[in-house]
Design goal:
Blueprint (H helix, E strand, L loop, with lengths): L6 E5 L4 E5 L11 H23 L3 H18 L6 H4 L11 H20 L7 H12 L37 H13 L7 H15 L6 H15 L11 H6 L1 H14 L2 H38 L5 H11 L4 E2 L1 H8 L3 H13 L4 E2 L9 E2 L1 H6 L3
Antiparallel strand pairs: 1-2, 3-5, 4-5
Helix pairs in contact: 1-11, 2-4, 2-8, 4-5, 4-8, 6-7, 7-8, 7-11, 10-11, 13-14
Length: about 375
């Protein structure tokens, strides 16, 4: 990106904070590789978005968001796997419940933020409300949920004196976030939207406007921006998995933009992530369509219980772990009939018991979950 000046270090006494330059300006792209990657990324996102036209996408959004929540939280050190997301708290080991709650909050924050886009633009109000949900009742709940910070924070290091990076002083946060908001909503700015959100994510992480939860909110904003601009009809593109698998490069490229005024490398990395993630999303949806057809063929062989089996499957696309009581509620059948249905679906390898217990058994739609792990 031509003539990019990341910002300056400002002496604050015993430390220096980084003051980023505003991003709401006209940008020029002269790097042909960025243009090539941008073209490819646009095509792949378009292919992915097509699926929301002819697949019942609502059935699968919960899985996409669950995967995003676990991967984004994992970058911050939270250890909850995809299966555990769909368990009730009482089924989670006590020592993992804080992690589980953080992931549940992430899911709630994404769902609520997408709803808010119907009435709110991509804005500080949206960002703050999303952050408030994210930190509600979990570790960090005392760190001003829904409010920009009013003190200095830092990244890495045991204290500010040995920090890896010190974001701008708190008194400049509101102005810098206002600059992001103007940039995001400037329809006359000719910079393509995928590069806009690459810049917004970089700038947001550089500002680090909250005392906690900046990484998770910053990654969540990528999807919200794409939905707000109509690039995606539904929230089905998430980059946290790519960032998690390339964690060192993710942090290095963000830092290189600040230290070497090199946005080009960051944009290449970001666009590569968009391309790879969109391609994987297409494969996942293709896998889902093939699975639905194969399972439809299996279920037809069940005979009189095929209708109930289909009801259970439809439910498990939303929540892929169930117990016998839930199946009873779905089918409105007696417990004896429920266990016969469970036995049949186990024999057909549609569901699998995962507790090994005699009571309180749980059944998983493993093949469906596995589609989102690749």
């Amino acid at each position: 990106m031509k003539d990019f000046k990341a910002g300056n270090y400002i002496n604050q006494g015993y430390y220096k904070s980084f003051q980023p330059s505003p991003i709401n300006k006209n940008w020029q792209i002269e790097e042909m590789q960025i243009l090539h990657l941008l073209s490819k990324a646009d095509r792949q996102v378009g292919r992915l978005d097509m699926y929301s036209e002819y697949v019942n996408i609502d059935l699968f959004i919960s899985m996409h968001i669950a995967k995003e929540a676990t991967q984004s939280s994992k970058i911050e050190g939270t250890q909850t796997n995809l299966e555990e997301v769909f368990l009730n708290m009482e089924d989670i080991a006590f020592e993992k419940r804080d992690d589980w709650e953080e992931v549940q909050n992430y899911i709630a924050a994404m769902n609520e933020a997408v709803k808010m886009l119907h009435t709110l633009p991509f804005s500080s109000k949206l960002i703050k409300q999303t952050h408030k949900i994210l930190l509600q009742g979990v570790r960090g709940a005392h760190k001003l949920p829904g409010e920009y910070r009013t003190s200095q924070n830092w990244i890495g290091g045991a204290s500010i004196t040995d920090a890896v990076f010190i974001p701008p002083i708190h008194s400049s946060v509101n102005d810098l976030m206002s600059d992001i908001e103007k940039f995001a909503n400037d329809e006359l700015n000719s910079l393509p939207d995928l590069l806009k959100i690459a810049l917004i994510h970089y700038q947001f992480e550089t500002i680090h406007p909250f005392l906690d939860g900046n990484g998770r909110v910053g990654r969540l904003l990528i999807t919200l921006y794409l939905v707000s601009k109509g690039i995606l009809k539904q929230p089905i593109l998430y980059l946290s998995d790519f960032f998690e698998r390339n964690r060192i490069l993710y942090y290095d490229n963000l830092m290189r933009a600040r230290t070497h005024h090199d946005l080009t490398q960051w944009c290449k990395f970001f666009l590569t992530g968009v391309i790879e993630t969109a391609q994987n999303g297409v494969k996942t949806f293709d896998g889902i369509l093939q699975m639905q057809k194969a399972l439809g063929d299996k279920i037809r062989k069940i005979g009189v219980r095929s209708g109930d089996a289909q009801k259970v499957l439809d439910y498990m696309y939303l929540k892929p772990i169930v117990d016998a009581k839930t199946i009873g509620s779905i089918t409105e059948k007696t417990l004896a009939s429920v266990y016969k249905l469970i036995s049949t679906m186990e024999e057909l390898e549609i569901i699998k018991e995962i507790t090994g217990l005699q009571r309180g058994r749980l059944y998983i739609f493993k093949d469906f979950i596995d589609l989102f792990k690749t």
